[in-house]
Amino acid sequence: MNRRFSISSLSVVLAAGTLLGCRGNPSEEPPIHLQRNMFTQDKGKVQRENTFFEDGRVMRPLEEGTLSTSAPIVKTAYFTGKDDQGRPVDKFPEQVTVDANLLKRGQERFNIYCSPCHDRSGSGNGIVIQRANKLGAWAVPSYYEQRLLDTPVGDIFSTITNGKNTMKSYAYQVPVADRWAIVAYVRALQRSQGLKVEQLTAEQRGQLK
């Protein structure tokens, strides 16, 4: 019995000595980290030099078309689609020139951002809506409904900017100039459905298929 107790006591003393020996010794050498990047990460700091870029600067100039998420909105018709009384404008702002180039740009942006729901004709039967209809979720109106034919251009611009109902805002994806281009293209789509052949020029009639 005493022998067992002596062996147990000796084991406890040895274990305690081992633990005390693991406290570590003071050293001026830095600790060893096998995963060094977990402690010292490469990153660019303001006003620092960076040899990765040709100009040697950490601070990079903004890419063309970058949209600010914090800059204040200038409350003019061009930026809001509304007049001084907060009503949607009926005409395009003076900064917007509606021509073939604007319509082409509008078509490109429309096909990217709008057609998934509104489809490329504006009838409201895009691939997203087709899927939503199967699930019994929601539908979007056709651009050719009378109320949308009558709606001011500023209202369309405001919808793109702020969203409406289930449609989210596209202010962060689409710059102001491109929003007006999309509005112009939507108007062109609307006119294309109700335009009579006799309203076309001889050259335009010859291009009909």
Chart the SSEs and their pairings.
Blueprint: H1 2-21, H2 77-80, H3 100-118, H4 127-134, H5 146-150, H6 153-162, H7 176-194, H8 202-206
Helix pairs in contact: 3-4, 3-7, 6-7
Task: Please provide a written account of the structure.
By secondary structure, the protein is mostly helical. It has helices spanning 2-21, 77-80, 100-118, 127-134, 146-150, 153-162, 176-194, 202-206. Helix 3 runs parallel beside helix 4, helix 3 crosses helix 7 (176-194) and helix 6 packs across helix 7. It is elongated, with a radius of gyration of 33 Å. The model has no long low-confidence stretch (mean pLDDT 83).
In a few lines, what is going on in this structure?
This protein is mainly alpha-helical and 209 residues long. It has helices at 2-21, 77-80, 100-118, 127-134, 146-150, 153-162, 176-194, 202-206.
Measure the end-to-end span: 110 Å
Number of helices: 8
Number of strands: 0
Strand content: under 5%
Low-pLDDT windows of residues? none
Order of helices and strands: HHHHHHHH
- Give a quick account of the main beta sheet: strands, pairing sense, barrel closure: none
Q: Tell me, briefly, the overall form.
A: elongated
Question: What Rg do the Cα atoms give?
Answer: 33 Å
* Classification by helices and strands: mainly alpha
Helix content range: 40-55%
Mean pLDDT: 83
